[in-house]
Every structure is written in C-alpha cells, then in structure tokens.
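Retry 2 of 3 after timeout on previous attempt. Resubmitting structure tokens to design endpoint.
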C-alpha cells in the first residue's frame, strides 16, 4: 500500500519514481502519459481500485515530469488534482516536489482571530509585475502599515492571461501566471517572517467553464438537484458524492499543509449545497485543522444569507468556521457616505442607529424581512464574538460594483471618508482593507476575465446585466461606458501605483495611525464582547463608548452631517467616568490627514462636533 500525502494526483515516492492516483469511475481503462521531462515519453496503465479510483507508479518519473491522463483512449486530459499547470489549464500537468522547499517558519504557530487586520490582495494587479515574487517584496511595507494577515484572492489555475481567479478549474495548481508552487511557499514563508499571516480565498461552490475537464473523469462531480448562480452545482450530497467530498476536503487541507496557509476564505458559501448529516463545511473545518496540526488557522466564510451557524462551534450545532464577512456594515456605510439607495442598498437607511447596532451585534439583519420580500434575511448572531464579523468599506466585489470600479474615497467627501475609515478601523469587529485602500489608490478595480471569444461575449453581457440592477448603471449611456472585462486595458488600469504611498501620504498616514491606535490602545485592542455601547446624537451623528475598566473608557464620535453643537446633551454615554474628564486622543481633522485642524473642546457649553469628522477621546 502506497503511503500518500494527498489521496489524489501525482506524488513522488521515497525511493524514486512517482505514484499517480485519479478518480474516474465511468472509465474502463486509464493510462498516465508521460509527455516531457524525466521518464518521458512513456504510457503507464493504471490499475483499478474500489470506488472508481485508478492508481499506478512510474519508477522513472520525477519532479518536473509533464504528464496527462488518457481515458479509454480519449484525451489526453490534465490531472484534476494537478499540482501545477505550467502551460495553463489546457496543457500538461507537472509532477511537483512539495518537500523541496526549505521553510524557515518553524517558530510560527499560526494566528487566532482576535487582533487581526486583514488585507485583501489580488496578485495580478497588486504590483506592475503581477507575480508573487513582486508582491513578496511589499510585505515589509504592509507590516509597517499595521497589516497582520494578507487574504490572497484565488490562486487556483484559471484560463486566460488575467482574471480574478473565481473561475478556477485546477484547484490544486497555483496559477502559472503568478509563478511556480515554490513562489507561493516563498511568499508565505517571508510573510511569516514579517509577522504576517496568509489566508487563501478558495472557491468550492462551482468550477469555471473553460478548462474544466472534471466531467471527462466523472459527471458525478456535479448535480442538477440545485440551481447555482455561476454554473453547475457541486455534488456534495447526491449519488457518488463521497469521492467528490474527498476531493474538496483534500484540497482545503492541501493548501494548509503543503503551503503553510494560515486559513481559508470560503467564497459564496450560500451557493454550497449539502443536505448530508455532516455538512461539507463542517467536515472542511475539521480537516483543515487536522492538516494544520499544532498551528492555529482561521476560516472565514462569505455568506449572503448571513447564516450564523457557519461560525458556531461544532458541538453547538454549527459548522466550526471562525468568521463571517459582514456585508451589512458595508451597505449601511455606502448609503451614509454616498446617498446611493439602488439595488441591495435600498434595504439600508444609512442612519446612525445602524452603526451603533453593527458595533454591538455584528449583522443588522438577523431574521427580519427585507422590505418587499416574503423571506427573512439572516439569523440570530447572539453569542458570537465581535471579532467574528469581518467589516469592510471596500472589497473586490463592492469596488467593481460601483460600475467604473471607483474606490470609496472617490464617491464621497474627504471628511466623510476619513470618518468612515476611523469607524472601520476602531470597531470591535475584524477590519478588512482592500489593496490600495490604505493610501487612497487612484487605480479602479473593475471586473476583468480573459476568456475565449465565445465566453468573452457572454461574460461581457452577463456583467452588464448584473450591474443593471443599479438604476444609474442601467441607462444606455452608462452601459456603453462599462469597462470590457475581457480587454487587457481593463486589467492594466486596475494595477496599483505603489508610489502613491508617498503622493497620497495623508491617507496612508491616517491608516497607519489608526492601526497603531487599534494595536497599542488596550481598550480598542480588546474586542471584548459587550464592551461597546452607543447612542444616536443627531440625524447623521452618533457616539460609541468603549468600556475599558481599569484602562479607562474611550469615546468615538462620528458625524457624517453638518457641524453639530450638543447643547443640551442629555446622553449619559457622553459623560466621563467618575472623577475623570475626556481628553482628545485622535481626530480625523488632523492637517496631516488633509483635515481642517478643527477640534472639539469639552467646554461648559458642551461639545461641538465638526461636520464630516470623527473624534476619539480617552478618559483621564
């Protein structure tokens, strides 16, 4: 019996050669064809195993051998569990040695959820070069800014010259566009050396349409029992679903074990359908933690339906994940900052009470009905910790959904932008920044995906149709101005200009200072359940009070409206603790951030709060 690290794919043998294993239950004859490199050319017939698996070894194959499978004489097809596709998803697979890289992170023990500042990064557009080695050189700067965890957008091999990565087709193979597998390892290893964790965005709700050869091995990878928004649903609970589940469970474990990833961000989990006694996400949580061993990992879910059981413990009937993306916070903030009430924003007034509730409870919709809808949205979040909610003002989806890929600072006033940034970075939830947000990047982030012409046309039409839910983007004039997802120029204009760290120093310094305050101040750092309360002060102003016991209290005053004079001020949260007074700790109006310099003295006439500003006080 061959002892393998992973149940599928090509693996090197201790005494030389390589062992191949694949699931192809509909086939009567399976061969592995060595096309190039050590051991090639050769064809090896694989032996059938119970359950539809096929396996066999080549004593001459080695790291660097290129191979594919021939199925009943058809093909050849790349390995569904290929570790690398040097020529893209349609080319041969390469045998990879996962043990050849010399790690230097033995002292790294992973991360917990509390205290993290996430940074979403798309490798292809983060630097002009668009490769992992170039991104790796920016890690010291990210660390100095206060980033503690990089969340890489999907790396799995996808078709074309550029793309977001959510149409991946070879889930075990890091995209050849970004480098080789050891380049991923080098990025993670260096990140750990700078005190930065690395979380990988993975897509287990569908497989891309181009370069997807899974059906050639078995149609049971997919099911028509469920409707999926992006293609065929994955078969996690139907006939022959056992090997399918194993394929995806092995993939989750693979990234954590072989690449030392510190966790996974699970894309669109509301499109993962499973009625099994053990949901695939619960099984995945267990498998990834087993793969991590003594290291601690963080599992984050995107879930539009806001089902909090995903982030509840297994022993309490949950799925055992750690955190949830919080779209509610983003949507409320965008309405408050821009006044936009189109599409999904129409369910959010953008009023102060929403931010008070977000600070206290995480999700805003926890079982209420959206206006005009019969179904309920969300589920109760009682008992979840503040850090389990990932808050953001920007992410890849939301920036691109602005139609022209505009960033938040381009859609609102400078003062409101600074105030919202303070709110995001000081809330007790887990903040997420999107690449370039920390220095108010001028580069847009549009949807881009390079496909063959037939698919390119469909993608362009589909994207325009999706954005037409926004009334302002549904007009013929705006539809004509939407960036073509398949154009190289769309991709190129989304690349960051990292020199803007200097030219936009006001925004960069503000983010650095707020992240330092979050890290160094014991009250903001605590993220304590029940540690914050709040009150509405005016139509567009509110106060959040952070209780710090022996460390004193903190006040965060946010005013998205006009100058406000609190006279009278019958709100107890504004009163300092006994025998104390409030002292200004931070203001968004600091001239270093581009502010007016206005402050809010605590006088006998009560407090004045400048418009479009945020103020932080500490009790002394």
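Retry 2 succeeded. Sequence:
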């Amino acid at each position: 019996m061959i002892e393998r690290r992973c149940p599928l794919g090509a693996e090197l043998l201790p005494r030389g050669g390589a062992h191949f294993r694949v699931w192809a239950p509909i086939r009567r004859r399976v061969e592995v064809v060595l096309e190039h490199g050590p051991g090639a050319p050769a064809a090896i017939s694989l032996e059938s195993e119970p359950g539809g698996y096929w396996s066999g070894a080549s004593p001459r194959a080695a790291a660097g051998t290129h191979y594919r499978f021939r199925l009943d004489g058809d093909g050849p097809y790349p390995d569904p569990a290929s570790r690398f596709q040097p020529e893209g998803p349609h080319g041969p697979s390469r045998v990879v040695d996962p043990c050849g890289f010399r790690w230097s992170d033995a002292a790294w023990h992973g991360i917990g959820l509390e205290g993290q500042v996430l940074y979403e990064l798309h490798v292809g557009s983060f630097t002009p070069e668009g490769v992992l080695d170039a991104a790796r050189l920016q890690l010291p700067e990210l660390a100095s800014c206060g980033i503690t965890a990089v969340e890489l957008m999907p790396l799995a091999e996808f078709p074309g010259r550029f793309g977001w990565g959510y149409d991946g087709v070879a889930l075990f193979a890091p995209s050849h566009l970004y480098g080789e597998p050891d380049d991923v390892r080098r990025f993670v290893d260096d990140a750990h050396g700078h005190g930065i964790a690395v979380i990988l965005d993975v897509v287990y709700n569908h497989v891309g349409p181009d370069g997807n050869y899974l059906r050639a091995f078995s149609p049971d990878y997919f099911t028509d029992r469920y409707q999926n928004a992006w293609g065929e649903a994955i078969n996690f609970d139907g006939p022959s679903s056992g090997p399918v589940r194993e394929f995806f469970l092995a993939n989750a474990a693979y990234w954590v074990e072989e690449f030392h990833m510190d966790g996974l961000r699970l894309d669109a989990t509301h499109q993962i359908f499973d009625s099994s006694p053990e949901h695939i996400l619960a099984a995945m949580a267990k498998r990834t933690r087993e793969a991590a061993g003594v290291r601690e990992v963080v599992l984050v879910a995107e879930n539009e339906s806001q089902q909090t059981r995903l982030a509840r413990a297994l022993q309490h009937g949950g799925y055992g994940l750690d955190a949830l993306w919080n779209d509610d916070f983003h949507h409320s903030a965008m309405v408050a900052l821009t006044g936009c009430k189109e599409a999904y924003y129409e369910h959010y007034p953008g009023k102060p009470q929403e931010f008070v509730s977000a600070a206290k409870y995480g999700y805003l919709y926890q079982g209420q009905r959206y206006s005009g809808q019969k179904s309920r949205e969300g589920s109760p979040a009682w008992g979840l910790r503040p850090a389990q909610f990932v808050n953001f003002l920007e992410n890849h989806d939301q920036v691109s959904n602005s139609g022209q890929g505009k960033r938040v600072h381009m859609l609102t006033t400078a003062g409101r932008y600074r105030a919202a940034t303070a709110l995001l970075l000081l809330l007790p939830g887990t903040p997420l920044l999107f690449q370039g947000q920390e220095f108010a990047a001028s580069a847009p982030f549009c949807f881009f995906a390079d496909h063959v012409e037939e698919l390119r046309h469909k993608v362009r039409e589909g994207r325009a149709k999706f954005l037409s839910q926004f009334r302002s983007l549904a007009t013929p004039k705006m539809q004509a101005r939407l960036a073509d997802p398949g154009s190289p120029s769309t991709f190129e204009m989304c690349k960051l200009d990292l020199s803007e760290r200097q030219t936009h120093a006001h925004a960069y310094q503000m983010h650095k200072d707020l992240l330092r305050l979050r890290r160094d101040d014991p009250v903001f750092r605590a993220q304590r359940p029940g540690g914050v309360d709040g009150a509405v002060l005016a139509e567009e102003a509110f106060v959040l009070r952070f209780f710090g016991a022996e460390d004193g209290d903190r006040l965060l005053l946010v005013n998205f409206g006009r100058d406000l004079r609190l006279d009278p001020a019958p709100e107890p949260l504004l009163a300092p603790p006994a025998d104390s007074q409030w002292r200004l700790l931070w203001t968004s109006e600091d001239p270093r951030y581009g502010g007016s310099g206005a402050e809010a003295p605590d006088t006998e006439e009560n407090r004045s709060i400048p418009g479009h500003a945020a103020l932080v006080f500490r009790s002394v």
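Attempt log closed. The domain at 118-203+245-515 is CATH 3.20.20.80 (TIM Barrel).
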